[in-house]
Amino acid sequence: MADTFNYRIDHHGSLVRPAELTAARAAGDPEALKEAELQAVKDAVVLQRKLRSTVVTDGDFPREDFRSAVLDGVSGFRRTDETDADGLVRWVAESLPKANGPLLADWVARLTELTVIAPKASLPSPAYLAATTFQPGHGPSSARELGEALAEIVLAEIELLVSKGVRLIQLNNPLLLGQLATDPAAPGALSFEDALAVDALAVRLDERPEGVRIGVAPGPVVPAAIDWARAEQLYGAIAADRWILPFDQGTPAELALVKALPEDRDFCLGVVDATVPALEDIDTVMARLDAVGEFKDLEDGAVAPSRGFADVASRPLLSAEQQRRKIELVETVARYVWGNEF
Fold first, then answer.
1. CB 280 within 8 A of CB 248
2. Are 307 and 246 in contact (CB under 8 A)?
């Protein structure tokens, strides 16, 4: 059974940017932007306290998207003028990356000054970055080589964050769940096996101080049918303490993915859909969690929205008010399940 210090009320880390911050970034004044970022983070901490969150993040407010902590903090990548369907700017790896200093530690230090709530940090997984930035003939010899170099950088940052007091670190790899489908799409630059090997390197922290969790968010949508053996391979290959899984559609595949999770891992279930304004019926959410309770100890669990609310700063999925209501609903669900024992 997993340790029960589970940060029951969680979120993925990215929050809807306030209008003042968006305006400051558009204005292009670096000093004014720094001030706006700091004020926005302070306000976000206050909001998270009011919403009874058991972790606190900087909302990704100092960053353009969920990858930026790494892409902005290392050498070896070139930004292009292209964007994908989700609004993510395409980057290309032109050499093996080298870190130019801490990636998130400075902002974490500010969080620890602002609140006693456990700070949380979110990073893109090295396998995801390698799969989406590798281009044959540009620098690294393979996506696997690129991913392994990134994994060393991410692991060093995780070690630094833990030393600074961070107790929950989330790696985001939006590609993994799609590769669990019974008929997955053709692999891209990185095979499923290579992706697992690369991300496993990033979470191999030798010692976990009490209460520390390293989690993996493997994607926002569970395929309609998953390959059970491949799901077991996913969990077995990456020694994450916590798995952050979408659980907002009520599908048999979502339930099966939780059931495949080994008994010694924590799970955080995304019980509300972060992409639609309508609030979920709480009885429906509780019925889904009751079904999980038939084969998992809910003491090993936590709840959250299904994904980040603004993984790309310029493309929030909901308004700030709709986001607040969703997080309030997550807090209500947590109290239904665990009472006030957080």
1. yes
2. yes
